[in-house]
Structures are given as structure tokens and as C-alpha cells.
Amino acid sequence: MSTKTLKEEHRDRISEAAAAIADWPALWRDLLKLHVAGADGRCRGCLSAVRMAPRSPCHIAAMASHAAVIFQERALRN
Ligand SMILES: [Zn+2]
Fold first, then answer.
1. How far does residue 34's CA lie from ligand 1's centre (Å)?
2. Is 67 a domain residue?
3. What pTM value is reported for the model?
4. What is the pLDDT of residue 64?
5. From ligand 1's centre to the CA of 24, what distance in Å?
6. What total of structural domains would you count in the chain?
7. Separation of CA 76 and ligand 1 centre (Å)
8. Is 62 within a domain?
9. Whole-number Å distance between alpha carbons of 32 and 44
10. In this structure, is residue 8 part of a structural domain?
11. How far apart are CA 14 and CA 8, in angstroms?
12. Does residue 34 fall inside a structural domain?
């Protein structure tokens, strides 16, 4: 049985996804451009007709910015 909280599990998933797309800068750069805060503080990239957009930074923006950090760390190692 896992002793991690749901929040920790969620953060792990975001980290895993970030590591997976880190070497694909065209993707995370586009995501970072799209998923920015609007005037109301909510993500403009997550706009939906059926539900309210999440507060910025959304999970996609968090993953993309984490991917950018991983990308830079990998570049420094090479
Ligand atoms: Zn978003």
C-alpha cells in the first residue's frame, strides 16, 4: 500500500510527464505560451465552454515549466 498522499502522487505524475517531454522543447515552449494567466488569474489555455478554467499556473503549465528545467539541466550535463 502506498503511503503517498494524493497530492504527492499527482506531483509525481507531473514530474514523470515533464521528464518525458523535456527533450521536446517545441512542445513545452508551445504549452508555456498557451497556458498563461488571464486578467482573472485563470489559465487562458484551459478555457472550456463547460467548466471554469483552473487558476494559473495550471497542471499543464506546471509540467511544461518543469520540463524546461529538466531540459536545461540535461543541456548543462552534456
Ligand atoms: Zn492551462
1. 7
2. yes
3. 0.83
4. 98
5. 18
6. 1
7. 28
8. yes
9. 11
10. no
11. 10
12. yes
